[in-house]
Specification:
Blueprint: E1 3-8, E2 21-25, E3 34-35, H1 38-45, H2 47-64, E4 73-75, H3 81-94, E5 98-102, H4 110-115, E6 126-134, E7 137-146, H5 151-163, H6 167-179, E8 184-188, H7 199-213, E9 219-223, H8 228-240, E10 245-248, E11 259-263, H9 268-276, E12 279-284, H10 292-303, E13 321-324, E14 330-332, H11 333-336, H12 343-355, H13 358-367
Parallel strand pairs: 1-12, 2-5, 8-9, 9-10
Antiparallel strand pairs: 2-11, 3-4, 4-13, 6-7, 7-8, 11-12, 13-14
Helix pairs in contact: 1-2, 2-12
């Protein structure tokens, strides 16, 4: 039997008061490589971004003789493992709960491994957001709490599948993960068409994945950075497939996860067993009610901020964006633009940094068209 209850932090009953532990799942550190294709989506709806992109494409073509292809680039979140962990830890502590934090970088486990060396975070699970190519798209699975002694071997196997996907191997991998009692495998944001193949085609592929491998997927994610309309459809999908719904914040910058789990488990293994048995208590944090467009805008603004204490010294946004050149060389934008960014990009980045000032954030929030309409 599967039972999911969704609670709201803004409700008068204060649901978190009935539990002892809060769990933060699915958030990222500077070890994640994030695709740059979101720039194309922004440019379709934002004239200044569209102008900056076109000017950048023209300049790149002029300098290098080949078109700019953002699929060859990526950006990295600004927070190092310790700071990312603290953002989630502190939010849960402020609710009066004992925190459990599971960081999941894209196809990388270095963040939790490094944190296990610190006394304050030595019990952090080794987790990853695994990219799974499937048919004409790809999905992300949150794989939490890999056995420490075999975590790197597991990561090698998962990466090998991502690099050379053979669908017949997928069942064996998922079955092996399922056989590890403390491991929790979550279908992250299943209805988000990141590949852009079309909503219906993506949904068809998601249902095919559940049909073929659903017995090895322990829960379906309610994502704190996706709009409620999509999350409502995810809840229905989970009910159709008799899966519990689980939280996933998907934090990339400084806003803490807007979706948490509540439990009385004292360890991640206990929490995993609870979810695998079909029980899940999800808490939507108050900031989830802020309109989705406003939250996305503020997250993009935070990407362009200067981070003086960046763990690797990548203080400026252009230090954290990388591109693979035709000869295979990887360079940051700061390295490519030794004399400064193109005027169009500089103007857009300056606008985003101006928008990050507290007064401007408040103005954007006040101008937003209402709150996220969260109704069950």
């Amino acid at each position: 039997m599967n039972s999911t209850r969704i609670h709201f932090q803004w409700s008068a009953e204060k649901p978190q008061a009935r539990f002892g532990t809060g769990v933060s799942l699915h958030s990222h550190t500077l070890h994640s490589r994030e695709l740059l294709d979101f720039i194309y989506r922004i440019a379709r709806h934002c004239a200044p971004a569209r102008w900056a992109l076109r000017r950048s494409e023209a300049r790149y073509q002029f300098l290098h003789g080949v078109p700019l292809d953002l699929s060859h680039g990526w950006w990295t979140p600004p927070l190092g493992p310790r700071d990312a962990y603290s953002v989630e830890f502190d939010q849960i502590s402020s609710l009066g709960l004992d925190p459990i934090v599971s960081l999941t970088d894209h196809d990388d486990i270095e963040a939790p491994i490094s944190l296990q060396a610190l006394e304050t975070s030595r019990n952090i699970p080794i987790s990853v957001e695994w990219t799974v190519p499937f048919r004409n798209t790809f999905f992300h699975l949150g794989v939490h709490n890999l056995p420490p002694s075999r975590a790197r071997a597991w990561m090698d196997q998962l990466r090998a599948f991502t690099d050379r996907p053979i669908e017949s191997d997928l069942c064996a991998i998922l079955a092996s993960l399922h056989s590890e009692p403390g491991v929790l495998t979550v279908f992250n944001h299943p209805l988000w068409d990141e590949m852009g193949i079309g909503t219906e085609q993506h949904r068809t592929a998601a249902i095919a994945l559940l049909s073929q491998y659903g017995e090895y997927l322990h829960a379906i994610e309610l994502n704190g950075l996706r709009p409620w309309r999509e999350n409502s459809a995810v809840i229905r999908l989970a009910r159709d497939w008799e899966k519990p719904v689980i939280s996933g914040g998907d934090r990339h910058v400084t806003e803490p996860n807007a979706c948490l789990n509540l439990t009385d488990a004292s360890s991640f293994a206990e929490f995993a067993a609870e979810i695998r048995s079909g029980w899940s208590e999800v808490l939507l944090a108050s900031h989830y009610r802020t309109s989705h467009a406003t939250r996305v805008f503020h997250n993009i603004v935070d990407v362009f901020r200067t981070y003086e204490n960046h763990q690797l010294g990548w203080t400026d946004w252009s230090d954290r964006v990388f591109y693979t050149l035709q000869d295979g060389t990887i360079a940051s934008l700061s390295q490519l633009w030794k004399d400064g960014p193109p005027l169009s990009v500089g103007v857009f980045a300056g606008f985003m940094q101006f928008a990050g000032q507290p007064s401007m954030r408040y103005a954007v929030r006040a101008a937003a068209l209402g709150a996220e309409n969260v109704l069950l």
